Amino acid sequence: MFDLPTIWAGLLALAIFIYVILDGFDLGIGIIFPFLKTDKDRDLAMNSVAPVWDGNETWLVLGGGGLMAAFPLAYAVVMPALYAPFIAMILALVFRGVAFEYRWRDKAHEKIWDRSFFFGSLFATFTQGIVLGAFVQGIEVDGRAYAGGWWDWLTPFTLTCGLALTAGYALLGSTWLIMKTEGDLRDQVYAIACRVGIATLLFMGIVSLWTPFLSPEIAERWFTFPRLLFVLPVPTLVFILAGLMAWGLLKRKDNIPFPAAIGLFLLCFIGLGIGITPYIVPRAITIAEAAAPDKSLAFMLVGALILLPIIIAYTAYTYWVFRGKMDPDQGYH
After folding, report:
1. Which of 95, 251, 262, 321 could disulfide-pair with 120, CB 3.0 to 4.6 Å?
2. Ordered structural domains, the chain, with CATH
3. Residue 333 and residue 327: Cα distance in Å, rounded?
4. What is the DSSP string of 9-61?
């Protein structure tokens, strides 16, 4: 159970999940950016993530670099299959990052940078959802190489996943602002969070019901007895967390919706793991088949065990320093 390929698969899963949560809420702020009423509201929204947004993207580098180093065969198959959405995602993230910095320094073109921040966040999120959908629906493999076409990633299912992740990131962004702001801005994002929360739960239901139809193997894992008994806690906890988040939004409990939204993402992540394990390329290449030699994995694991706790500690310390509500009269720029 604890062989080196499995350990590395767990580390990569951890890195990807942390990225989804941390970069998810600041991408979500970009998605809801045009719906904030005033320039001051948008300034406050940006200031809420200014100290942490650069570090949030560290986990994407760790996930991508770790996949290439620890599972080179999976990397060699997945990248050609998803070149187009990956390139679009990276360009959108770069464009968004430039907009984030220039918005404060080029006030004459602030509106242009506002739109750039919105569209960069939107396209980065949507393409991440497409990548996720293409990964879940399966990648055609022949031997040890990608055997599909250039447009295989573009299907109704992947587009639906793109919309689902967009709604989910908007939920993370709006609930983050609920936790960090006060006054009129908080009232605005409460209203936004209620709408995107409903959309997120709706898309979660659609994707969850659609996924078993993509593969008999996935359907068997979710709907056959006795496996059903082991996976039943996942949808049960989804209903509980959805209720908790709804209660937090309706009762204006500022510190409840964001952790509840994180919990929903965690359950989706667990559900994804149930559907694809032990594959790293679903229904084509297993974790063991794609792994680098054990000596390479062991060598890299030493570095990971030293650096990963440092990165986690630094990230936790940063969030601790900037904890609590923001002062509207102060900013980080």
Report:
1. 95
2. 4-321 (1.20.1630)
3. 13
4. HHHHHHHHHHHHHHHHHHHHHHHHGGGSSSHHHHHHHHHHHTTTHHHHTHHHH
Q: Read out DSSP for 195-234?
A: HHHHHHHHHHHHHHHHGGGG-HHHHHHHHSTTHHHHHTHH
Residue 182 token pair: 């006060």
Residue 228 CB coordination number (10 Å): 11
CA–CA dist 122, 138 (Å, integer) = 25
C-alpha 157/C-alpha 149 separation (Å) is 17
Helix 156-180 / helix 39-49 crossing angle, nearest 10 deg? 90
Residue type at position 211: T
What b/e sequence results for 68-102 when a residue is b if at least 16 CB atoms lie within 10 Å of its CB, and e otherwise? ebbbebbbebbeebbeebbebbeebbebbbebbeb
Residue 275 is predicted with a pLDDT of 83
| CA 126 from centroid of its chain's CA atoms | 11
Residue 333 confidence (pLDDT): 44
Q: What angle do CA 133, 137, 141 make, to 5 degrees?
A: 120
Residue 1 banded pLDDT, cuts 50, 70, 90: low
CB 82 within 8 A of CB 132: no
SS3 call for 82:
coil
Phi/psi zone of residue 293: left (φ > 0), alpha (ψ -120 to 50 degrees), beta?
A: beta
265 pLDDT higher than 50? yes
pLDDT tops 70 at residue 58? yes
CB 70 within 8 A of CB 300: yes
Query: Is the C-alpha dihedral spanning 276, 281, 286, 287 positive or negative?
Result: negative
Place 111 in a pLDDT band, splitting at 50, 70 and 90: confident
Whole-prediction pTM value?
0.93
